[in-house]
Design brief:
Blueprint (H helix, E strand, L loop, with lengths): L11 E4 L6 E2 L2 E2 L3 H11 L1 E6 L6 H10 L9 E3 H13 L3 E5 L2 H9 L3 E2 L7 E4 L7 H12 L3 E4 L5 E4 L2 E4 L1 H9 L7 E2 L5 H11 L7 E5 L2 H11 L2 E5 L18 E3 L2 H9 L1
Parallel strand pairs: 1-4, 1-13, 4-5, 6-7, 6-8, 8-9, 9-12, 13-14, 14-15
Antiparallel strand pairs: 2-3, 10-11
C-alpha cells in the first residue's frame, strides 16, 4: 500500500499512541521494532490526545510493553493543556474533569486543583468514571465565569474491546449546557503541534512526519502545521473511509511496521 519513502526527508517523527503503537493494553504487532527503526532515523516523539495518564506513567507503561521511550519523548493532551494554561495565565486554579494523568500534569506545571467555587478554568479530558455530580460542579464554575478549556474532543477512543466514548462526549455534555470550550488544545489544534514540534528539537515542520490513525486529528492537524502525514490502518479508520474524504494523508500504510519497512527499504 505504501511505496518506498525517502527517510532522509525527515529528521523527526510524531507517532500517535492508541491505534498506532498499542490497542488497549497490548502493543500492536511489530510496533516496538518499528518504533526503534524510526528512532534510528531521527527524533521520535509519541504524540497522543490521550489525557488519562501523565507522560511519566505513559513512559513506564510503554517501556513495559517493549517500547524504548522516555517521559520527555511523550507529548499528550494532558501535558499540552497544562503548558497552554501556564503560557496563558501562569499558575492557575483549575477544576478538572479527567483521570489521574490530567491532574498530575496540571500540578506538575504549577497549577492548583480547586473546588468549582474557586476555579479560574474548567479543564476536561477523558474520564471513564464521569459522574453527573461532576457536570453539576462544572456548571457552578462556569456560571461564576471560569473559562472552559478541553484537552481534546476526540469522539471515540480505541480499545482492545472496540471503540468507547472519548473526551468529546464529556466536552459535549458541557456544551449541551450552553458552554462550548473556549479552546480545544489537543490535535488537530496548532497548539498541540507547536508543543510536539518543540519536543522534537526540529525547527521546521517540513522535516517532521506525523504518523497517526485518524484523518480529523492526525492528518488534518499535520496539514495545518505544514507537516507531511502517514495514515496507518490499525486504529479507528477503515480503508473505505478514505475514499470520500477531502482530508488526504501524504502516505497510507497498513501498520506502523509496514510504514517503517517502507522508510527503511
Amino acid at each position: 500500500m505504501t511505496s518506498k519513502i525517502d527517510g532522509k526527508r525527515y529528521r523527526a517523527f510524531l507517532v500517535d499512541l492508541d491505534g498506532v503503537l498499542v490497542r488497549g493494553s497490548e502493543p500492536l504487532p511489530g510496533a516496538p521494532e518499528a518504533l526503534r527503526t524510526l528512532q534510528e532515523r531521527g527524533q521520535v516523539v509519541v504524540f497522543s490526545n490521550n489525557s488519562t495518564r501523565s507522560r511519566r506513567a505513559f513512559a513506564e507503561r510503554l517501556r513495559a510493553m517493549g517500547f524504548p521511550v522516555r517521559p520527555e519523548e511523550i507529548v499528550n493532551s494532558a501535558f499540552v493543556v497544562a503548558q497552554y494554561l501556564r503560557e496563558r495565565s501562569g499558575p492557575a486554579r483549575v477544576y478538572a474533569i479527567g483521570e489521574e494523568g490530567l491532574r498530575e500534569e496540571l500540578e506538575a506545571a504549577g497549577h492548583t486543583l480547586t473546588p468549582p467555587e474557586e476555579a479560574e478554568y474548567v479543564v476536561v479530558g477523558l474520564d471513564r468514571r464521569f459522574r453527573y455530580e461532576q457536570l453539576a460542579e462544572a456548571l457552578r464554575a462556569l456560571l461564576r465565569g471560569a473559562v472552559f478549556v478541553a484537552a481534546n474532543a476526540d469522539p471515540v477512543f480505541p480499545t482492545a474491546q472496540g471503540l468507547i466514548p472519548g473526551a468529546g462526549a464529556l466536552v459535549g455534555a458541557l456544551q449541551g449546557m450552553g458552554y462550548p470550550p473556549q479552546e480545544i488544545v489537543g490535535k488537530p489544534s496548532p497548539i498541540a503541534f507547536r508543543v510536539a514540534l518543540k519536543a522534537t528539537g526540529v525547527a521546521s515542520p517540513r522535516e517532521c512526519l506525523m504518523i497517526g490513525d485518524r484523518l480529523d486529528t492526525d492528518v488534518e492537524g499535520a496539514r495545518r502545521a505544514g507537516m507531511d502525514s502517514a495514515l496507518v490502518l490499525t486504529g479507528v479508520l477503515r480503508p473505505e473511509d478514505l475514499e470520500g474524504s477531502e482530508i488526504k494523508p501524504t502516505f497510507v500504510a497498513e501498520s506502523l511496521a509496514a510504514l517503517a519497512r517502507a522508510i527503511r527499504s
